[in-house]
Design a protein that fits this description.
Layout lengths: L1 E3 L8 H6 L11 H12 L3 H21 L2 H14 L1 E3 L2 E3 L4 H9 L8 H13 L22 E2 L1 H7 L4 E3 L2 E2 L1 H4 L10 E2 L1
Antiparallel strand pairs: 1-5, 2-3, 4-7, 5-6
Helix pairs in contact: 2-3, 4-5, 6-7
Length: 185
Amino acid sequence: MKTNLIGRIGMLGVISALIWGATPGCGPSAGGYCEKLCDCTGCSVSENAECVDSIEDVRAAADEKGCRDKFDAYLSCVDHELLCVQGAVDADGCEAEQTALFDCGVPLAADNVTACKMFVQAVNALDCIGDAKIDDSFCNAYADTSCQVADYFFCLIPTYVCKDGALDPDELQKQSDCTALAMCD
């Protein structure tokens, strides 16, 4: 039995929340959702604008891939699940909607460190790795680099799949396809 890693990823925190949007007038709007997030995290006017832009970019990608329904379902879910806990966003419970959108080919948007930490969180959630957990402290090394590695980490996530109590070697072989996604200026 295979357990897909993407289906096991926990909520992606603020970054995940910042990237999703819905059609104005049909559920949460980009502006309304970003305002809700910024009320929690205390972001600036320019960060709020970046949030709205990110939502618009992902919405366009979903439209291009024919996944608008999955996009809308995900935003509605995270909007409903969003809680502000001591200045941090907690919006878990939308893994199925997230997986459906990811499986449709809509890219995630995040900075290098966040993408790395999401990768570590996803791998550590696998039952088949047992106590061999990864420490995410190495992710901070990607903060001050000209390299863009977020897409690389997102590409790696679905290659970590448990099969018969171990990592599936056939899936792990697909990691070489991800290397081209790590870009440096």
